[in-house]
Amino acid sequence: MARKDTAADAANPGRLKQIAQTYKMTRRADKKIGLVLAAVGIVTFGVFLAIGFLIGHPIYLGILGLLLAFLASAIVFGRRAERAAFGQMEGQPGAAAAVLDNVGRGWTTTPAVAMNRSQDVVHRAVGKAGIVLVAEGNPNRVKSLLAAEKKKMNRIVADVPVHDLIVGVGEGQVPLKKLRTTMLKLPRVLTGPQVTATNDRLKAMGDLMSNMPLPKGPMPKGMKLPKGGPKAR
Q1: pLDDT in tens, 35-44
Q2: Quick one: which of 104, 105, 93, 106 has its CA closest to 176?
Q3: Which intervals of the chain form a coiled coil (predicted)?
């Protein structure tokens, strides 16, 4: 029992530190986050307290209002923190790969299956919607890179639908913050065994970047591929 309490005590400072770091990160991009959270909490608590006085149960409604005020503030904080994180990641090489890693269960992600020396890159995700190729980089250059990879997918797994998305804010592109939602809205046409079979075939085929170690998440700005390194097919 003592060991469990010790573990819980050790975990709590870690959680509090993580929340504090998230708040600081969010505040750098959202200067009004403190005022917004305070307003949400106060208004929620005030509404329930007022209802409590009207019906003659201010203590019960006050306690309920306090709990719901905390919950409402936490929800708002989570959403604004997510928005701030996406804002900081927007435009960084490898940002889409970080989002794909968190799409959800049922998806298998392979980052950087195709790349050129200008850091235009194509990532691949496989799920019940089929194969989704996600490109990030210069819209003009990345189209040819994406087309070549899509052609390769159609040749290797011709019976599986292949979708292609370009991350960006231009016309016909998908904003980084909407990438996960867009993928989850794709129609599911494959069964679990078909997804597994598709992954096995692609794994057997091998990836362009299989022999090149890449860091997780966004790649450092200014990173250059070594001379003689892999080129997009």
Answers
A1: 988 999 999 9
A2: 93
A3: none
Kind and range of the H or E run holding 37:
helix 33-55
Q: Hey, is 133 helix, strand or coil?
A: strand
Distance of CA 215 to the CA centre of its chain: 16
Query: Residue 24 and residue 18: Cα distance in Å, rounded?
Result: 10
- Rounded to 5 degrees, what are φ and ψ at 148? -65, -40
CA distance 86 to 170: 16
Question: Residue 140 class from Cβ within 10 Å (0-12 exposed, 13-18 middle, 19+ buried)?
Answer: exposed
Q: What number is the average pLDDT over the span 53-65? A: 91
Backbone φ and ψ for 11, nearest 5 degrees, come out as -75, -35
Separation CA 149–CA 29 (nearest Å): 36
Mean pLDDT of 69-95: 75
How far is the C-alpha of 11 from the C-alpha of 214, rounded, in Å?
31
Is the dihedral angle over the CA atoms 124, 125, 130, 132 positive or is it negative? Answer: negative
Mean per-residue pLDDT, 149-176:
87
Residue 78, both tokens: 């989570």
Torsions phi, psi of 75, nearest 5? -65, -45
**Of residues 94, 51, 96, the one with CA closest to residue 218:** 94
